Amino acid sequence: MTTNYDPIAEQYKLSKQQPWRTHIEAYSLLQLVGNPAGMSVLDVACGEGFYTRLLRQQGAAKVTGVDLSQGMIDLARRQEVLHQQGIDYLVGDAKNLELPHQYDLVVAAYLLNYAQDRQELAAMARGIARCLKPGGRFVTVNSNPALEFSSAPSYRQYGFETTIRGEFCEGTPITWTFFLENDQFDIENYYLNVELHEAAFRAAGFRETRWHSPRLSPQGLSEYGADFWIPFTTHPPVAFIECVK
Ligand SMILES: C[S@@+](CC[C@H](N)C(=O)[O-])C[C@H]1O[C@@H](n2cnc3c(N)ncnc32)[C@H](O)[C@@H]1O
User: Fold this and answer.
1) Which fold has domain 6-146+191-244?
2) Global pTM exceeds 0.85
3) Choice from 1, 21, 67 to test ligand 1 binding pocket (greatest atom count within 8 A of CB)
4) Tell me: the pLDDT tens digits for 72-91?
5) For the chain, which residues make up each domain, given as ranges?
6) Distance between Cα 125 and ligand 1 center (Å)
């Protein structure tokens, strides 16, 4: 199991093609982002730049991607060389981000669930708040802090499963196993509850926090039918959060 993305960067990229990624993850996240045209946007835990590129394509004026993994940043930069979009990519840790610029919007897809305890979560929230202008927004998707993963249903039909080891409490590892065509790989992240998230955001200086359930794209509904999405939407393994500084 790993939280180090260097060895799984290519497999992770393939997992982004699973239908729930398009019809729930990306659809919900981009709806929450709204129209980024003209904004300066920082994508923290940008990975190989999946959302970083989308945000730039949607008209964001200045886009920066930051990730802890040199392997992920190398992949992102390779894309930038092939199709130049004017995105800057940096290796950095969300817990001690100090950038020369404050952004209108910070986006983070699957960052906060790497905090192993409340102190790490608070450090990430502070790092993000430091990078935002007053009034700026932080929009994020993570493993769902409101889901009791110990009794979650099977998500195999979507191409992944979640499992936990031991007691379900602060810092319990959640293993996400992704099934690809001829391959599978594991990612490990950590459970921290809703209250700990809200406390971390407040302490970092966010004045408002809103929780959002996953939204299903109209295309996802018509292509797969309503029944297909029921386990996902009744026990959402991911949650979307929006904070205002
Ligand atoms: C599941 S990937 C998500 C990548 C990308 N946001 C996406 O949705 O495709 C999680 C990323 O978080 C990065 N990460 C984990 N902890 C981090 C930290 N403290 N600071 C910055 N990036 C971090 C990992 O290196 C990895 O690339």
Assistant:
1) Rossmann fold (3.40.50)
2) yes
3) 67
4) 899 999 999 999 999 999 99
5) 6-146+191-244
6) 14
